[in-house]
């Protein structure tokens, strides 16, 4: 009721991708959890002018309170699952494709809302004028992905999302569909069968990445059209394709604050900004910080089935730790010898797991054994030599080296007796070095 009675309409730049409007009091999206309306303070007439309160007047449960303020809650937890998602590549960075300049160039997110029955056009696929149905549609794969100028990695979803778009266009219109791709990557269950289905439906596949999208016509047939200039690598020719609509299948990027998030939770990021797992194949859920797990696209581009599976696995891992009630700690830990600690605090800033704290009373650092992962960073960094690692003291390491050299020398003696013609002097010199 409150949403219906609100007189203020606002362009929805988030969920509707700028194609539709919402009220100043709104539910973020269908099936939102919790399914509770929120007030957009920046656009609410009451917060702007001090008048209105229409939503409050028609609220039957008196649930609206304009005096509420944001609260910051601090919770003590034992496990954390990072599932922060991704950012969509900004197609405006590829100026040669004309997004934002040519009206009928759409991003993948815009087309998702355009083709949705609950979207701004009720599922009708039309051009920007809101009326005209396209007679030809071009779908460009890998926009911002597999591109040395932007992101060199594969975004994992572009091929299948583009095939889905082709199916939706064919389902709603009589348009001719062109798919411009680099390589088709349809490795999932039933994916290649869907690819074959799109070809049977009449989709035209062109192996080549468009160099430019323009509205400058060269022939009468190109007048009023968007023209894609592309090298068809299968036939080895430059070709021009005039169409009414272009859909850019944008790739996935790490969230803008991914590296800040990694520092806050004591995990590592790849050069591209994705979170690094403990092991990409054997333990893709855990991180090097105990109790911190990753799920979904926080660790790299994934499709929906992979994200769901990883989320369930991370939840199961956390439940297992809770039911275990006791923690199994790694035997290799660092120890601060307080009598040698100078209180310089270098180790405090170097520890990647935030396991070292400083005792202001005694002026020395101490290590939390439950958080320490035995990486040895503090041992190497301590200028006073006040930190040692379990099983890796200076005496133990030197003894191991001595043992290795002794084994090497004994092996050389055996080799000299067995192969007298070999140049043993050179080998011995290498061992000494």
> CATH first level of the largest domain: which class?
Alpha Beta
Shape-level CATH architecture of the largest domain: 3-Layer(bba) Sandwich
Radius of gyration: 31 Å
**Which structural category do the helix and sheet elements fall into?**
alpha/beta
CATH superfamily placement of the largest domain: FAD/NAD(P)-binding domain
Q: Please state how the strands of the largest beta sheet are arranged side by side.
A: 7-14-8-9-10
Keywords:
FAD/NAD(P)-binding domain, 3-stranded antiparallel sheet, alpha/beta, 18% strand, 433 residues, 5-stranded parallel sheet, 20 strands, 5 domains, 12 helices
Write a structural description:
The protein has 433 residues and is an alpha/beta fold. The protein folds into 5 domains: 2-66, no CATH class; 87-253, FAD/NAD(P)-binding domain (3-Layer(bba) Sandwich), CATH 3.50.50; 258-324, no CATH class; 334-389, 2-Layer Sandwich (Alpha-Beta Plaits); 394-432. 28% of the residues lie in helices and 18% in strands. The protein has 12 helices and 20 strands. The chain has helices at residues 2-5, 45-49, 54-58, 108-115, 158-172, 191-200, 258-265, 304-324, 346-350, 377-381, 394-418, 424-432, and strands at 9-12, 20-23, 25-26, 38-39, 80-82, 87-88, 105-107, 136-143, 176-181, 204-207, 212-214, 226-232, 237-243, 245-250, 252-253, 292-294, 334-336, 356-359, 364-367, 387-389. Strands 7-14-8-9-10 form a 5-stranded parallel sheet. The protein has a 3-stranded antiparallel sheet with strand order 11-12-13, with no helix packed on it. Helix 6 (191-200) links the parallel strand 9 (176-181) and strand 10 (204-207). Helix 4 runs parallel beside helix 5 (158-172), helix 5 runs parallel beside helix 6 and helix 11 packs antiparallel against helix 12 (424-432). The longest helix has 25 residues, at 394-418. The protein is globular and about 85 Å long. The model has no long low-confidence stretch (mean pLDDT 88).
């Amino acid at each position: 009721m409150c949403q219906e009675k609100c007189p203020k309409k606002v362009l929805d730049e988030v969920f509707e991708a700028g194609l539709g409007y919402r009220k100043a009091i709104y539910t973020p999206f269908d099936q939102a959890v919790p399914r509770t309306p929120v007030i957009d303070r920046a656009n609410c007439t009451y917060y702007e002018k001090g008048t209105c309160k229409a939503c409050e007047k028609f609220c039957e449960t008196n649930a609206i309170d304009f005096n509420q303020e944001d609260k910051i809650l601090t919770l003590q937890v034992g496990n954390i699952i990072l599932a922060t998602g991704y950012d969509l590549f900004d197609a405006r960075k590829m100026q040669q494709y004309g997004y934002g300049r040519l009206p009928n160039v759409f991003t993948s997110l815009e087309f998702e809302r355009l083709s949705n029955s609950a979207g701004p056009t009720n599922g009708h696929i039309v051009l920007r004028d809101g009326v005209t149905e396209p007679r030809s549609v071009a779908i460009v794969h890998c926009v911002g992905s597999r591109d040395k100028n932007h992101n060199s990695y594969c975004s994992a979803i572009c091929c299948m999302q583009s095939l889905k778009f082709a199916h939706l266009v064919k389902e709603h219109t009589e348009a001719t569909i062109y798919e411009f791709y680099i390589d088709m990557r349809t490795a999932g269950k039933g994916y290649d069968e869907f690819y074959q289905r799109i070809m049977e439906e009449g989709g035209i596949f062109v192996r080549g990445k468009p160099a430019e999208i323009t509205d400058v016509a060269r022939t009468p047939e190109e007048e009023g059209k968007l023209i894609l200039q592309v090298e068809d690598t299968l036939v080895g020719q430059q070709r021009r394709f005039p169409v009414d609509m272009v859909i850019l299948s944008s790739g996935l990027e790490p969230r803008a604050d991914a590296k800040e998030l990694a520092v806050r939770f004591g995990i590592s990021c790849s050069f591209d900004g994705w979170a690094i797992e403990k092991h990409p194949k054997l333990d893709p859920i855990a991180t090097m910080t105990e109790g911190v797990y990753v799920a979904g696209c926080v660790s790299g581009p994934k499709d929906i089935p992979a994200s769901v599976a990883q989320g369930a696995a991370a939840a199961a891992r956390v439940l297992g730790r809770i039911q275990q009630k006791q923690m199994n700690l790694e035997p290799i830990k660092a120890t601060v010898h307080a009598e040698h600690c100078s209180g310089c605090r270098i180790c405090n800033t170097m520890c990647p797991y935030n396991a070292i704290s400083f005792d202001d009373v005694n002026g020395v650092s101490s290590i939390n054994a439950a958080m320490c992962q035995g990486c040895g960073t503090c041992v190497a960094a301590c200028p006073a030599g006040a930190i040692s690692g379990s099983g890796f003291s200076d005496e133990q390491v030197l003894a191991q080296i001595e043992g290795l050299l002794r084994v090497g020398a004994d092996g050389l003696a055996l080799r000299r007796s067995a192969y007298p013609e070999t140049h043993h002097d050179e080998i011995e010199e290498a061992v000494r070095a």
